[in-house]
Amino acid sequence: MISKLILFSNFLVFVVSDGYICQGGTLVNPPLDLTEPFYFPENWNEGLPPATFNASQYCNWRINMLEGMYATVTFYKDADGADSSATQIFVDYPNGDNVYLQDNDDAPYIFTKQQFQISLIAHEKQGKFSFKVVWSEYPAEMCKINIPLDQYQLIPQASTNCAVTFTAPNKVWLIAFNGLFNQASSFLRHSAVFEGGSVNGNFLGTLDKANGLNIWSNGKSLTVYTFGMQMQDNRYVFLGMDANAAGGNVQRFDGLDCTDTPPESCYVYAYSYDVGNKAVITASRNIDYLYYVRRLAENATLSVYEGQIDKDHLLTTISGTNYNQKLPLAVKNTVKIYKVDTMLTQVSLTNDSERAGYGKIAVLTGTGMQTVVHSFDYRQLSLEQDTFETFTADILVNFKFNVVSFDVNGNTTLDIEIYQNGLTVLSETFTKDYKPRSSGYTAFGDKISVKYQTYGRATKGFEVDFACTSKDATTPQPTTPKTTAIPKTTVIQSTVSTPVITTEKIITTTKGSSQNYALICFLAEVLYLLN
After folding, report:
1. What CATH class has 144-245?
2. Per-residue pLDDT tens for 512-521?
3. Closest CA to 178 of 208, 135, 200
4. What region holds the CUB-like domain (predicted)?
5. Distance between CA 382 and CA 390 in Å, rounded?
């Protein structure tokens, strides 16, 4: 029979004129009726301000749970005042992890079997502290999601009422995403991670820990349970991967989600030193735009991966010497990974193409611009590959592009057009019967558009690499666009597609020399027409 039991070992609680006093520790067991919460102090409840405690004392509570139970605990603390060292109040999880409690943070904590502890160390100042414990049983019929991993996959998961079990060939590596700006800790701590395939395994930590330090299973599987926590927009909350999927040279990941973050505060921060390294992962159906380098050493290289961490999924590398040519950059796929090889990097990230200045070509004399245009789920069979992107320049530039990959299913088309002063100077429509040449294409203009259409069929997408410079250019005559007959097909709109990029924001220009150059080209064209 379970009974409510409070054992006092040199423990005394009483109220004096200036607060309560406690010496020693107490053990608290769950009650027979789980609807009855435990309050401390006993004559306090959540409708009252937290109770005052006296200075110069130590209190400890050890709170038990039985198999199949968990506890939801709400703390009410106002004890830091002007000197946060005056009082220390912290909790110890069943695995030994401890967390210091913050003032005025009443978001609940979750604790699992067998026992957790609450400690209060008061120094020379008084403070206010109370708490409430509610015991609950896990659902009798708990739904289960099993996710098998191979040695390369990185699989994200949204919040769910089910227990989620990852199983890997070696060990499971778990990363969580800080989905709420300044509230990530309180949100992610409403969770528990267990060793093995159920909630009966040993407690490994919370998703809050998985975000900052990551969690590894001891065996080949672990289970995540979020106690009914639901995230808006079905965004991803955590991600599982095999322990070897990072290639052996990453010690931990930061899970980054800037959905609720002020734009100026969102950036990729990765480092690599002898004493440790950290890479960054994002997971969403949004496009990441990298657009401004805050810190990056000349000898450092930031590698950008899509989907997996291997050379086949490497989108590009950004260094301290080429970032002017590479940024802004659109990074796609559900999972994006950012890893630096030495020292550290800090690069601004946004999901807003206009803020990034994406689609506007800013050519620096002697350097040019290089970019990669591809479908969102490139390399994966998907119905969501349709893409339409446009890039414009304020001056005439020399475009050089190469079609790296072009997957076709039925009537799939890839249209690439280059314009000069509103007139088409190059137009190519690639189909299953007309494939792009390997030597690439070159044209002189001020705008390029890339359009990939699948007409509702699944493909593995496409990739087009192009570069543009303002030197060594010749002025061709505008030509009539070439057309290719396309069979009539009902177009099925995809639920998610790559957005049309039409931004006009300029990142960097060198207008003095560029305008003179454009004028010379214009006069040359006039003389050509007069002849």
Report:
1. mainly beta
2. 443 443 444 4
3. 208
4. 18-139
5. 23
